[in-house]
Every structure is written in C-alpha cells, then in structure tokens.
Amino acid sequence: MTSARPARGVAAAALLLAVAAVHLLASGQPLGAITGLLDGAADGQAEKIVWELSVPRLLTALLTGAALGVAGYVLQATLRNTLAAPEFSGVNPGAVLGILGGLTLGLFPADSAAGALLAALAGGALGGGLTWLLSAGRDPAGLVVHGLLGSALLAGLTTMLLAYQPSRFGNALRWLIGSVEGRVWEHLALTSWWIAGGIAVAWACSGMLAVLSPSDDHAASLGVHPGLGRAVALTVAIALTAGAASMAGAIAFVGLAAPHVARRLGGRVLTVAVVGAIALAGADSLAQLAGQLLDGTHRLGIPTGVITALAGAAVLIRLGRSQ
C-alpha cells in the first residue's frame, strides 16, 4: 500500500498536467503563445492574453473543482448520505443568493473578490443554517431531503430578487449557471489562499470524518462528540463552498460526483481535491471547445456550469438507481 502511494501521486500529477495542457490549448490561443510562457516572460500580445486570461481561468477551474469536491466529501462523510452535495444542502444556493443580494444592494462592486467571498459566506451559512433548522432532531442522513427543501426556498428568493431588478439578469446569469470565465489574478489573490486553507483544514480533519462516518455511537465510543464534530465539518464545507461560489457561481454536481470517484480510488481528502480539480478543468475545456463553434462572426459561449449539469445529471440518475 505504501509503495502504491508515490505511484498514485505521480499519476495524479501527470494527469493534472495533461488536463492543464488540454485546457490551455482549448482556449483557442496559438500553441506558440502558450509555449512562449515557458520563456519566463509574456512579451507578445498573444502571450499576455494567455497569461492574463487563460492561465487564471485554468487556475479558477482547478481551485473551484477542488473546493467543491472536498466540500462534497465532507458533507457525504458527515451526513452519511452518498447524495449529499453543496447544491443539495442549501449551502451553494445560499452562497449564490448572498452574492446576488450583495450586488443588488450595492454592498460591494461586481469585481470585488473579497466582497463576493464575504457575501457567499453569509449566504452559505444562511442556507446551511436553514437546512439544519429544518432537520433539527432528525437523523443526519436525512438532511439531504431538508436540504432540497431549503434549496428550493433559496432559489425562490433568488428569483424574486431577479424579478425585483430584471436589468441585472445578464450579470446574474454567470452566477446562476456557473462559469469560470472572466476571473483574473486579482480574484485569485485572495480566494486561492482561502480555498487552500479550507482544504488543509479538511485534510487535518480526515481522522474525525472517518470516525463520524459510521454512526454517532461509533464516534462517541471513540471520544468524538458527534454534534461538535459535525458542526466543525459543516463549517469547513460551508467555507469551501463559499470560496468556490465566489469564484464561479453555482457550479453543480462536481461536489456530488468527485467524492464517489475518490472513494473508488481508495483516497480521501487530497484525492478528492485532485479529482474535483480535474473534473472541472476538463468540463471547462469541453465548454471552451464547444465555444469555438462559429456561427458566422459570432462565437457561441458555453458556461462551464452547463457541462457539469449535463454530466452530473447522468451521475445523479445512476446514484439514485443504486440507492
């Protein structure tokens, strides 16, 4: 087992590099502009475009996918439900509602990474808290059902918000569907550290998650307070989901599918982070390739969230049949 871990690490690194290369090539920029970055300076116009737009978009996809994958893993382990995910627990819809509410009220500029993160945190905590209240006193495994109810309520509030100011619908679309396009280095400067820190905390809590996963009685017998442990784990999941939402909006199904793939590979937090990163970067590569379909002089833009929703629907159907 020990000798297999370095081999898996090398394979994961190679796969990440391959996905990153495909993602940059899918951006539509000349190959010379991409390889020109290896010279240490982006001198030409094409190289600057790659460095200032394509590379931040790649990093946004990797970080967002890793955050959602780990958040989903934490939720599934803590709630003991294989269908638990940020979008089914009220956290993701709440985070998006927080961002759109903050933008509508003018609490922060549209390009403010810190403002979006704080608003997503407040909204995600609201969504998670609402789900927790709806399921108070019940088995944590059934929390997903109440999460769906809370998510529906939050989605209704978001719709009301958009109806109140329909002129903002164009800007809101990227948050509602989910897209990693348009992120630049300024956005990554804060959120990348937030997500990396959240993943580090989740990794440090791996032992606690393993103890909580079988049952509350099992956790209590090993000296872990189930309620306190669950509160810590859910706080980490909310923090990671808020970080992802502040970067890319309502990306769905990555947090649902990535933990299942990681468990099949025999991994935990770090494995699911890599799987989530690869999944979202791959989905965005497909979105960019589809976006290069030209209709006359107009480019067809495909948000990343559309690709993950289509792929995730198939995963959800398969999981639902296996329950």
Sum up the structure in keywords.
single chain; 323 residues; mainly alpha; ABC transporter involved in vitamin B12 uptake, BtuC; two-stranded antiparallel sheet; 14 helices
Mean pLDDT: 81
The separation of the N and C termini measures 30 Å
H/E element string? Answer: HHHHHHHHHHHHHEEH
Based on CA atoms alone, the radius of gyration comes out at: 20 Å
The CATH fourth-level homologous superfamily: ABC transporter involved in vitamin B12 uptake, BtuC
Sheet with the most strands, sense and barrel status: 2 strands, antiparallel
Organism: Nonomuraea ferruginea
Pfam families: FecCD (PF01032)
Protein name: Iron ABC transporter permease
InterPro entries: ABC_BtuC-like (IPR037294), ABC_transptr_permease_BtuC (IPR000522)
Please provide a written account of the structure:
With 323 residues, this protein is mainly alpha-helical. The chain has a single domain (60-322), classed as ABC transporter involved in vitamin B12 uptake, BtuC. Helix content is 74%, strand content 1%. The chain contains 14 helices and two strands; from the N terminus they run H-H-H-H-H-H-H-H-H-H-H-H-H-E-E-H. The protein has helices at 4-26, 31-35, 45-79, 91-104, 113-134, 143-164, 169-177, 185-204, 206-212, 216-221, 226-248, 254-264, 269-291, 304-322; strands at residues 294-295, 298-299. It has a two-stranded antiparallel ribbon. Strand 1 (294-295) and strand 2 (298-299) form a beta hairpin. Helix 5 (113-134) packs across helix 6 (143-164) and helix 8 runs antiparallel to helix 11 (226-248). It comes from Nonomuraea ferruginea. The chain crosses the membrane at residues 57-75, 96-123, 143-164, 232-257, 269-294, 300-319. InterPro entries: ABC_BtuC-like, ABC_transptr_permease_BtuC. Keywords: Cell membrane, Membrane, Transmembrane, Transmembrane helix, Transport. Its main location: membrane.
